[in-house]
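Task: encode each sequence below as structure tokens.

Item 1
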Amino acid sequence: MSLNLACVMGRLTRDPELRCTPDGSAVVSFTLAVNRDFAPKDGERATDFIDCVAWRHSAEFLSKYFSKGKMAVVEGRLQVRTWKDKDGNNRRNTEIVAENIYFGEGKKSDSSGFQPAQQEADRPEQAAPEPHYEQLDIDDGDLPF
């Protein structure tokens, strides 16, 4: 049995650039800056830069709705690619192949004047309607319980 599942949340290090393969498949390579959960004794948290790649609809979604600095949650699988560079040296890269991409933070108000919907606590109180119950005339003598 095998399991290959990766889930990370971090900020994009640059704007995603949508490209197409020769067969027309959309692809985006991007890097997420992911803060580590712990801080060493000096108090500075380290940041890992995780390479990711998204294909087809995920690539189009990412390039349309995300930009540098936006928080993203990426679910996918780890992939290790090996190749030879132009000097004949063996090279290796580990990346997450994104299968699902989610927004990592809520939408904030922007310069267009968009304001998010009011929270329940911010709304003026309104009297809740009184529930209406109707009496049913049924004979439950035949019920087995």
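Item 2
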Amino acid sequence: METRPLLALVRVIAATVVLVALGSDIASQSGYGSHELVTTLSYFTVQSNLIGAAVLLLAAARWRHEPTPALDWLRGGAVVYLVVTMVIYNVLLATGDPMTWTNAVVHVLFPIYLVIDWIVDPPRSRIGRRRALLWLAYPTAYLAYTFIRGALVGWYPYPFFDLNANSVATVVAYTAGLYVFGLLVIAGVTLSGNWLWERRRSAGPAVVTGVDGA
């Protein structure tokens, strides 16, 4: 039985659900002006979920074609960002109060789905170390944006980045810790992807492989 159409449909549904959840949160800020809209879009959670939804829709649109190494890389990056989102929220930010449905979607359900999607439809190409480390480019750009905007407007999206409430040393320590955790997640996604790739390659000659890139 051909599973690609079904997988594409599930990806579209998952992306639609997360976009509706994000849209609900954004719409709730629409009455407060463009500044609040920019503030909402400045959360890593919002951005990482938008990236995940876009990657899923791209993968779904290409269901008739074999995935390319570039698409494998994009999917892996989305998994990294959403796993970080899920863990950091639930470890450092969750208050213990009942979650709203939108919070449950963007902080738990969608990240878990991306991990399952990665396992169910593993990459067709090996992900080398250098390619994997490029996943740090977006979080690094996000941090630069966060601190520059924070210095200009006096607001930071997360308490551990807040230079108004914490010392520079504290913020640097949190940032370094997040980088270390991000590297661990990158290692996990890379190793799992490459292990699944090896299994796929050994399964038969129909497998499409890619270059190492290490």
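Check on item 2: Residues 206-214 have pLDDT under 50 and may be disordered. Residues 114 and 211 are 24 Å apart (CA to CA).
End of task.
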